[in-house]
Design a protein that fits this description.
2 copies of one chain form a homodimer. Chain A is an alpha+beta fold and 514 residues long. Helices cover 34% and strands 22% of the residues of chain A. Chain A has 16 helices and 21 strands. Chains A and B meet through helix 1, strand 11, strand 12, helix 9 and helix 12 of A and helix 1, strand 11, strand 12, helix 9 and helix 12 of B. Strand 13 of chain A pairs antiparallel with strand 13 of chain B, so a sheet runs across the interface.
């Protein structure tokens, strides 16, 4: 899930890691002090319009936060899609349509100015669930709160994930129009309302014939993303690992041995144990050190990193602070006692089988003499190019069956294929060129070890470059007190108006790219 | 823990298993229809006194329930010990003393009537924690509620575990005194307030010189126990398995590898996983089918069942309803597809390593992309004669160390040695003779697969027979709506007055034993 990346960022920020780029598998750094935003031909007028439109932008974001669409709770989904469509129309999109799916609807619209190039923009209009009791200000009110080291920020569910940066992108379109400037590229907007539940029907939106036709014309697509940390630096990702999230379940019910429910633990002497069954099935999935998948055929389609990718990572390792990262993570040794650069190469290179959680029987304080009828391991399996989710699911099932665990259930809750974007693609070149113009230090990540649903775009039939772009800052995705920076007090980090200008800059840069 | 047996009974009753004796490892049945209570020499007068004293007995129980002593919460411990001492004095015990320990105090008292024989009685004055919100009548009020199939019962925390049957025993002493009958045996009373937390200091009470000297004079000791199920049948246990309850903990903290806390799961590619470490350590503890301990030297001191024990179990199997038991437990096959009698023999014979629970990382609904810094398996290890808890703890540690898991913590929360009582001991012979006089069908359990703290008495330096005795009924130990039967409407099951008479009968039977 895409938000996963945002959540990871938040975690690193909380742990006080200034720059997590290297940790994500990063590369060459274009380091320079942050100057004023770059001047494009029409930028003065657009900036003036962006400043003038700031209050309207802030209100637009606040009103949007007040309408939380939550797919997991089936809350405000039709309302959220209609609101998204209105936001798109207000920003100048035409032919805006609500696209029904087997789940909740998507939204699609275009701005065709007859430009040579077309840019795709991906929005999510849904937000993560929240518990108001955990928040220090009401999650739907969008109150302004000072965040030390950054500045005045709007607090609310969805503020950073993803309404704030999306609102900044819309603000750029409003500002360009208000400045009577010429929009330099055509824009295709595709939105979904199920991102937080793993985008189960998004492919239906993207492959609707008129949507697909529009997407295929795009030079690439990005999700507006507030990429800056407190040093002002940003990441440019050349792809990400895929993921399968699943529960492995051993139960007396399916096994036909052991109890169907929990029974008294003394019965272990005459009754089989689904919890032991789970342990035995689990331990076949990895090497004895727990570090390498041992599922049959798992590495068949794994593409080794290229020398270029490795050199990007080595450069990131050289620029990174290994001691600080170890401290932040509470880790004293990397796997196999690898050196830092080898560990970062392994981070990008290797598929993983990770235990997210174990749940069986009695889980409270102390003990309770039960023999559980059911045991669950929550796993995530990270995939690398050219593995696919479909292939991996099939191989996992075949592996368990071959080892005699036909009864052990594999309940997949979601996942994505890995994604790759060429370093020389128009999208990445434009991102780098824009950041350079903006004076923002950008790190190239050879591969994000986390995962996002970009494969919907990068895989056939859409087959376009996809990534994240944006300056600005926010944090707290999926957590209480999520926020998005509005008025920056940090000279290296963009507030709302500068973030707006960053998106405008991208559009003009794209139009001018060779 | 002793209450463990009570909880097991409750579970079986809830599942509608009429008779769990065979399941506990049972033997020969003395089946006969339940007549009126047997007539001993002075029984008519004692019964009259017991009837007359019934309201006082009920009030005594209700008042006691109103004062819950809970060691885990350090609630009413001094008050509970003082109250226990008052109850003992009121029932005729002299030299009653509160016995300090390093934890909460015990209570000790004697009634010396110069009789030839002395009986030990073990009380617990503490009760299990409770949440009033889960109860359908207030847990400290002792309200009378009709329990279909049994009759009017007092509902309250501690009603069956163990204040109800203890109050019935005290009522027998009151009735004998009120009837001006001669108490036929001397009585030694030893009480603790930490039974529900695993009796950590009870040995200090039992080995205090004057207490030890008194205990050593006893023919045996029992805890008053409402043994009857709805058929009226009771169990007589010739011993029980021991138990060690523990948590096996793998953590980055202790391991020096992996993270100290939870980190983002994408890091699995470069960071070791304590959850995988736990899985690998666990799977060394048992055979691949999960059914036999594989800890080095585990079977060195295991005494095989005798032919007599096996024949008792085979008789129980013949009398048991295998299909009904499988249904009640939700089990379709016993371990290794054993026959019913072989499964019951295995139940009594084999030590076990059971997973009570698994807890690591994210345990809520769905998934969360974390790599947990800590993983816990809650285990109970059942021990059989002549294993000891000390030996087993040492061997478990040595096994883990030998397999390289020196970092995996073994946190023992409690446990008991196994216990054994000779079938021809005065205690068991008296139990059987009393039940026979009472016309109560009694099953001899060769070995209880559950566990109780009887080893305090059966092991040196006390070295006396120990068991459970009593008619009557109750259920819900450790659960909401715990109850103890007062006015029976089931002709096969004793209410309070008959349970009182059952204890009186035991005293006279013991005095008359050859």
């Amino acid at each position: 899930m895409r938000e996963e990346y945002q959540a990871f960022r938040t975690m690193l920020e909380r742990r006080g890691v200034l720059r997590g780029a290297a940790m994500l598998g990063a590369g060459a750094a274009i380091l320079s002090p942050l100057p004023a935003l770059a001047a494009s031909s029409q930028s003065a007028a657009i900036r003036k319009a962006a400043e003038a439109g700031k209050e309207a932008s802030v209100k637009r974001l606040r009103d949007w936060i007040a309408l939380p669409s939550i797919a997991a709770e089936n809350r405000n989904m039709a309302e959220g899609a209609a609101y998204m469509a209105d936001l798109a129309r207000d920003a100048g999109f035409t032919n805006v349509e609500i696209v029904p799916t087997d789940g909740h609807p998507g939204v699609f619209g275009t701005i065709d100015v007859g430009a040579k190039r077309t840019l795709g923009i991906y929005f999510m209009y849904d937000v993560k669930q929240f518990d108001p009791a955990e928040w220090s200000s009401p999650p739907l009110e969008g109150r302004m709160v000072d965040k030390p080291g950054f500045g005045l920020s709007m607090v609310g569910r969805g503020a950073v994930n993803q309404k704030g940066p999306e609102a900044a992108f819309l603000a750029a379109l409003h500002a360009i129009r208000a400045a009577k400037a010429t929009l330099p590229v055509n824009i295709v907007l595709i939105c979904e309302g199920e991102e937080e539940i793993g985008s189960p029907h998004f492919r239906q939106v993207a492959t609707k014939p008129n949507v697909l036709a529009a997407l295929k014309k795009c030079e690439g697509i990005f999700i507006p993303f507030p990429s800056q940390d407190q040093t002002g630096a940003v990441d440019v990702n050349l792809g990400s690992k895929g993921i399968i999230e699943l529960e492995l379940v051993a139960s007396g019910e399916k096994w036909g041995r052991g109890p169907k429910g929990d029974v008294h633990s003394s019965l272990k002497a005459m009754v089989d144990s689904p919890a032991w069954r789970l342990v035995q099935a689990l331990q076949t999935l990895v090497t004895p050190d727990g570090n390498k998948p041992a599922i049959e055929g798992w590495f068949e389609n794994v593409r080794p990193l290229t020398e270029r990718e490795k050199s990007l990572i080595r450069a990131a390792a050289a620029a990174g602070d290994e001691a600080e990262q170890k401290k932040a993570l509470g880790v004293t040794h990397w796997i196999n006692n690898l050196s830092y650069d080898d560990a970062l190469i392994r981070l990008a290179q290797e598929p993983t089988v990770n235990i997210e959680g174990l749940v069986a029987g009695y889980t409270g304080p102390g003990g309770k003499t039960v023999l559980p009828g059911r045991a669950v391991a929550k796993l995530d399996l990270r995939l690398v190019p050219n593995q696919t989710r479909a292939e991996a699911e099939k191989k996992l099932r075949a592996h368990l069956d071959k080892h005699g665990f036909t009864d052990v259930e594999v309940n997949v809750s979601g996942g994505y294929d890995p994604t790759e974007v060429a370093e020389d693609s128009m999208l990445i070149r434009t991102e780098l060129a824009t950041y350079k113009k903006l004076g923002v230090p950008a790190h190239i990540n050879a591969r994000l070890a986390g995962s996002w649903p970009g494969a919907t775009f990068t895989a056939p039939p859409v087959s376009i470059a996809a990534g994240h772009f944006g300056i600005g800052h926010g944090a707290g995705a999926h957590a209480p007190n999520e926020y998005y920076l509005i008025d920056s007090t940090n000279p290296k980090v963009a507030g709302l108006v500068d973030a707006t200008m960053g998106f405008a800059e991208f559009l003009y840069t794209l139009a001018a790219m060779k």
